[in-house]
Amino acid sequence: PGAAADLHVLDLSLAAAGRGEIRLAEHEMPALMRLREDHRAARPLRGARITGVLHMTVQTAVLIETLVELGAQVRWAGSNVLSTQDAAAAAVAVGPAGSAGEPRGVPVFAWKDQSPQEFWHCVERALTWPDGQGPNLLLDDACTATELVHRGAACERSARVPSPDGAADELEEAMLGLVARTLADLPGKWTTLAAGLVGVTEETTTGTQRLRRLDESGALLFPAISVNDSVTKSKFDNIYGCRHSLIDGINRATDVLIGGKTAVVCGYGDVGKGCAQALRGQGARVVVTEIDPICALQAAMDGFQVATLEEMLPVADIVVTATGVEGVVTAAQMARMKHQAIVGSMGHAEGEIEVAGLSAVPGVRRIAVKPQVDEWVFPGGHSVIVLSEGRLLNLGNATGHPSFVMSSSFANQVLAQLELYTSADPYTVGVHVLPKYLDESVARLHLAALGVRLTTLTEAQARSLGVPVDGPYKPAGYRY
Ligand code: NAI
Prior knowledge:
This is Adenosylhomocysteinase. With 480 residues, the protein is of the alpha/beta class. The protein has two domains: 12-234 and 401-437, Rossmann fold; 239-396, NAD(P)-binding Rossmann-like Domain (Rossmann fold, 3-Layer(aba) Sandwich), CATH 3.40.50. The chain contains 20 helices and 15 strands. The structure holds 1,4-dihydronicotinamide adenine dinucleotide (NAI).
């Protein structure tokens, strides 16, 4: 469709294919389907205008259609230039009752492989209803929409046009370009938008870290719920999701045999733990790098060698970053790796792998082997294979996490949206976490599908533990 229609996806005729995948995913997302059943009649999100900025995948399609069934109006953009699944985007735009000729679904602005400018243009369109209104709720990933609104509002307050020169990378440069344009064309746009927001629910570690920094500096403009900090999100999606989708990404990209190879995982947080387990499961010799003594000791106790990347450069066959921090693998380090070493990121930071620095290496050549697989050949003739240009490889080279684990993450998203929108006690400006009973409820909704049978506390046991028979069972700070 042309950009004039109130949606922008690659090709609406992909909708039927996308719908088939969505139908299969629904069965694997029991918590979302249960939330639909429980709330379909009451439509508690009636009146909610939700802008979602999160990877436009099949699983996200089930999330979007759940929000719609609960009564919300929704507009959507992806949160990464490579992560959109075009068939899923088309199916959501067409909607269950529409057709390619007459789309009747949710306005989606996303396609796979966008330029930085296209990416921010899509986020802006998802933030703007045709009647000019903004959203009253954000559903965000990596603080993408939240950061745009905050940057825009800050520039409006200080009446300062941002300079792209100070940008850390192309993506930030494009965002500053968008802000500069709106300052001239639509004065007050971001301040008004921020004022209309009940709050944001944030999906991932990197986004929650950014929200906390905004809050600590006193700059946060609206309440936030960190979905990532639900146990049923970070201890499931980040660990078991990555355990599945890392291997999927490496296989689809290169199909190298992983068994017997030396694989380095940089970072042993939740994502790194899942990655290390997965590579070990394939028979790789896994070495971990860490900066935090606690995580380093955990890795050692789990039986992994812990070393520095520098030490491993001559022997590593596969290097995966899982830190959310930029500059973890530099261009100079890649130049010293083994011939055809595979380098990819599972973390969300732009520049976690310094791909931009590769093109500055004198005499280097880039060979595009296939989409999202580049061989960088150094002057001596040896090369490294870089996946997804150093961005999230499980979403760029494969299709992200499987549905069952995303059911857990996205049930937290729906509950967090409901909390912000319907809570009798409005949330204060700050970064909040869902109450423990809701976290436990998300886990409960997945037990039957796996044939799990829970033991019930007796009254006497509950008294001695000091917890109700029906939970919540653990104090807020319990680490699982
Ligand atoms: P985390 O904070 O639990 O773990 C990150 C770890 O990296 C920490 O233990 C930290 O000490 C370590 N680290 C930091 N700098 C390092 C360096 N220079 N070298 C070695 N280790 C270093 O965070 P989590 O939840 O594991 O997330 C990591 C990243 O992955 C985030 O950017 C997050 O947004 C992203 N993420 C990606 C997913 C995907 O599907 N690919 C899913 C969930 C999260």
